[in-house]
Amino acid sequence: MHTNPLLSLKNVPGYLGMAVTVLLLGFATSFAMPYMSLFGVQKVGMSPLLLGVYLTVVALSSITISTLLARWSDRLPDRRPVVLTAIAAGTLGFVLLAFTTNYLAVLLIAAVCLGTGSAAFPQVFALSRAQAGAAGEQGMTALRSVFSLAWVVGPGIGAALLAGLHFPGLFLATAACYVGAAIPVLRRMRAPLPPATTSGEEVQASAPATPPRPMHWVALSFVLYGTAMNMGSAALPIHVTRGLHGSEGNVGFLVGLCALLEIPIMLSFVLRARRASNEKLILWGMMLFALYYVMVFVAPNIAWLAVAQAVRAVVVAILATLGMAYVQELMPDRVGVATTLYSNTMNAGSLLGGLGLGVCAGLFGYHAVFVLAGVLSLAAWGLLLATRRGLGARGTAEMVGVRAGD
């Protein structure tokens, strides 16, 4: 008799608490993040240039601070203090933003507090992987589906909070979600972490062992994917409202539909014990992403875009869950750094996506953004495929040899 993998996860010590933490972090990000640019323009009075500076500073500080905290956490016997530090910084940041509209103050708060708070997501997943023990990748996939569930309803709740309580109320509600996310972590501070499984046991339980890959090329592939993702996401609302003469409600429907479709796909990765390797699925996902942008480019109406969201949901489900697991698989002895590396590729993609969107749309119009995003998706696929077939293999082998001889 086979046990349902989802039901078995509830028996993992601390797992349900981590699920609550991930859910509340999902609410915290989905409440406020979609409206941060609106806050900057409407309340702080940012010009397009100042908004661009703000977004760039936030992205760079997130990457820098998350990387430093990841290296620190991997040296500690318990990464929970790092998780709590990141959550506390995010809480403080949104409390301060609720009472601040000065540009320099907002910029400083975003750089220090929100930049540090951004480390909460990768650090919680790194902690959860340690606590999941034998559940390993299946546990992480289930948690990622919980995060997506928060994004299904979070933006709508955020919009209602903004309409009823304005930005101060929205930011204080976000801070409250951060506080709630810290409670399960605090409750288990005295509980010992389960003994770490060896990297070989963990990889063998989920997929065949993956040969070493040059991580700088792997990271660049994910950056290209993240750039395509952010360019397309930013251009889609404008294309829907201007190009296809739809409404803001149509935009919300498409975003929510995609997030909703992601969840059963993610859960299928938990329920299916036998499937293709993470690397093969990620390669297919990047190829499908190029197909998605072709569908968006030729879409004659909103209904066609709704169909395209099914393709996008498959891509996001694969890359958001198995992408993180794949990078962890390549760096089994540095889970915190691996999780943060994956998260930082998305932050870098966000930064480059905003710049690419502005340049491409300024020169060729918003419709052309989907062509560029499709090309970047193909480039990401080609680069990852090249690493699989030996790009940088010699340098990687030499590095492994040097470490073995140390």
Can you describe what's shown?
The protein is mainly alpha-helical. The chain folds into 2 domains: 5-196, MFS general substrate transporter like domains (Growth Hormone, Chain: A, Up-down Bundle), CATH 1.20.1250.20; 205-405, Up-down Bundle (Growth Hormone, Chain: A). It is 82% helix and 0% strand. The protein has 16 helices and no strands. α4 (48-75) runs parallel beside α6 (103-117), α5 packs across α8 and α7 (120-132) packs across α8. The longest helix is centred in the middle third of the chain and has 52 residues, at 136-187. The chain is globular and about 55 Å long. The chain starts with a helix and ends with a helix. InterPro entries: MFS (IPR011701), MFS_dom (IPR020846), MFS_trans_sf (IPR036259). This is MFS transporter, SET family, sugar efflux transporter. It comes from Deinococcus hopiensis KR-140. Residues 214-406 form the Major facilitator superfamily (MFS) profile domain. It is found in: Cell membrane.
Mind sketching the topology for me?
Elements: H1 5-9, H2 15-32, H3 36-42, H4 48-75, H5 80-97, H6 103-117, H7 120-132, H8 136-187, H9 199-206, H10 215-243, H11 248-271, H12 278-298, H13 302-330, H14 335-364, H15 367-388, H16 393-405
Helix pairs in contact: 2-7, 2-8, 4-6, 4-14, 5-6, 5-7, 5-8, 7-8, 7-14, 8-11, 8-13, 10-13, 10-14, 10-15, 11-13, 12-13, 12-15, 13-14, 14-15
Keywords: Cell membrane, Membrane, Sugar transport, Transmembrane, Transmembrane helix, Transport
Pfam families: MFS_1
Family: Belongs to the major facilitator superfamily. Set transporter family.
